[in-house]
Every structure is written in C-alpha cells, then in structure tokens.
Amino acid sequence: MTQAFSPSDPASLLVDPDEQRSGTGTLRFVLTKVAEAVASILLVIVLGFLLFRLLPGDPVAFMVRERPTDPAQIAELRDRLGIDKPMLTQFWDYFTGLFRGDFGESYIERRPVLDMIGERLWPTVLLVGSATVLAVAIGLWLGIRAAWKRNSFFDRAQTGIALTLWSVPQFWLGLILLVATGGLFPSRGMHSPDAAPGFLPQTLDVLHHLILPCVTLLVVFYAQYMLVMRSSLLGEMNADYLTTARAKGLREDLVRRRHAVPNALLPTVTLVFMQFGMVVSGAVTVEAVFSWPGLGQLTYDAIHGPDLPVLQGVLVVLASAVVLMNLFAELLYRVLDPRVRTA
Predict the structure, then answer these.
(1) What is the mean pLDDT of residues 229-256?
(2) What is the mean pLDDT of residues 247-257?
(3) Strand, coil or helix: what is 109?
(4) Of 24, 83, 208, 287, whose CB count within 10 A is highest?
(5) What would the DSSP string read from start to end of 60-74?
(6) Distance CA 210, CA 203 (A)
(7) Which H or E element spans position 244?
C-alpha cells in the first residue's frame, strides 16, 4: 500500500514518488476513459432518437396501410404510441425508460423491444463469436508464418489472398457459398423443422446450419487479423532485442515465439477487442442472406417496417457493445504495454 509522506514518520520518505504518480495516473486514466465511454453512449442515445424522428415516413400510416381506418382511430393510435407528444416529452420518456430497462414496444409485433433483442442476442453471439475465435486463431497463425517468411511464395500468396478476401462484400460471398455448396448445407434458419428431439441431435442440427454463415464471416474476418499480425511482426523483425537473442544462441523458433511474437501481439489484441463490438453490426448482411435469427436479421426486418423502437433499441445495444469493447481495449493496452503507462 502506498504510504503518504509525513514529516514525523521517517519511513514515509522511503515511498517511491514514481510509484505514487503511477497509481494516481492509472486511476485518472481509468476514470477518464470510463467517463468518455459513458458520454459516448449518451451521445448515441440522443443522436439515435433524433435520427429516427427525422427519417421520412409516418409509422402510423404504415401500420394502417391497406386497412379502412378513420381519423379518430389514427388519433387514438398516435396517442397510444406516444408519438403525438412534444419531441422533448418523447425523448424524456424514452431516456428515463432506458434506465428502467424499458426500450419501448415494437410497432409491428406489439412486444417489448428488450424481449425481442434478448431472444436474438444468443444466435448472434453464437455466430459472430464462433467466426471471431476461429478468425483470430487462423489469422494470427498465418500472419506470423507469412512475416517470418517474408517475400517467400507463402508470404506473397497469403497476403494476396487476404487482401482479396478482405475486399469481398460479405453478402456476395455468402451467396457464392450457397451456390457453390449446392444444398450440402442448410441455406436458411437455425433449426430444421424435422430435427430429432434431444440435446445431441438438436446441437448437431444447429452446427449444421451454422457452417455456411460462420465460414462467410470467418473468410472475411481472418484476413484483417492476418494482415495486421504480419505488419506488426515485420515491424519487430529488425529490433535490437532480436539480434541480442540470436547472439545468445537461441534457436530461430524460440526467438520468434518468446521475443518477437509477444511484442507484435499488442496491436492485434487491441484490434480483437475493438473489432468484436463492430463485427456484430457487420453480421447484418450475412444474417439476412442466411435468415439467421440474430440481431442482424432483427435489424433487417425492422428497417423494412419501419419499426422505430426496435431500430432504436438495436442501435443502443450495438453502439454500447462497440464503446465497451473499445474501453476494454484501451485499458488492456495500458496493462500490456509499459510504454503507455509511462506516457
């Protein structure tokens, strides 16, 4: 424990001033980053509310389209939805409702938005989480080998493939895989209606449906991890500490695993956290192509509504995920890299 200086206590003179500054600086850094994250989420809530109110189109007119409705019924519907109130009153009701866990009610399904998001969250976590874990493992392995064999055929081939796949639109790649596999894997949904009951058959059925959308995301995701890892490791290749390690007689694979890769991993670890929040939003098109019942499919359906409460709720959840992942990345980077702590 850090001891404060006291003129009557000579032991307090032994406290390292750098330690005191470091502890105070870390606390200030954490509090600053948390405050910035909270401010970002509040800004997203405000902008999201205003954005969806400024969009063209009347949700009540959409809800009563092709139905004989008189003006009194339309007025009653506006009153029930609360969209006839002043804008400031609507925002206050929406803002205070978020803190009570009330994200509003869907215009289309007439259900609480939070319940709809909760039902769709698990399929998205399963899909995006599986693709991200596999992409990180494959991307890092290929990036390390490509950098260590720079300018070789393996390096040039892997770099070219990764650059190409990184540029491919996910929905287009998903459609290509659907055509190329020729019905070998299910093309839509998460479950088969005729799947046998029981835990194991149901699990295998979900995994069978998961393969194509997961591969679609994996093929695009792994490329960025591979390229970042390769670039980061190339930056360490000529470092003095590697020359020193080789001069001590260490084998080349030990120089790579014990010295070069741990230092080159820092940018990649940060990228994993920062990208994990954004890949959820990137799964919208893939979930739409494969009718995967996740947040992406929910967003796609809400846009066609338009179901404004659902869109607002999904925006808040996705934006909060991105902000929190960025916060974890910044805090983790300070822990892993001593240069950031002393900056």
Answers:
(1) 83
(2) 81
(3) coil
(4) 287
(5) HHHHTTTS---HHHH
(6) 10
(7) helix 240-247
- Say how far apart CA 83 and CA 60 lie, in whole Å: 9
Measure Cα distances from 124 to 25, 59, 131, 250, 278 in Å: 38, 27, 11, 45, 12
Number of H helices, E strands in the chain: 15, 0
- Determine contact, residues 97/104, Cβ cutoff 8 Å: yes
CA angle 156, 161, 165 (to 5 degrees): 150
Arithmetic mean of pLDDT over the chain = 81
Q: Which residues contact residue 138 at a Cβ distance below 8 angstroms, ignoring those fewer than 6 apart?
A: 218, 222, 225, 226
Q: Tokens in use for 262? A: 């741990």
The whole-angstrom distance between residue 65's C-alpha and the CA centroid of its chain comes to 37
The reported pLDDT for the residue numbered 4 is: 45
Q: Residue 22: which pLDDT band, with cuts at 50, 70 and 90?
A: low
Of 224, 211, 251, 226, nearest in space to 143 by CA: 226
Q: What percent of the chain has pLDDT over 70?
A: 85
Going by the DSSP 8-state scheme, the letter that residue 197 receives in this structure is: S
Average pLDDT over residues 80-107: 83
Side-chain half-sphere exposure of 283, counting CA atoms within 13 A? 35
Provide the pLDDT confidence category of residue 39 given band limits of 50, 70 and 90: very high
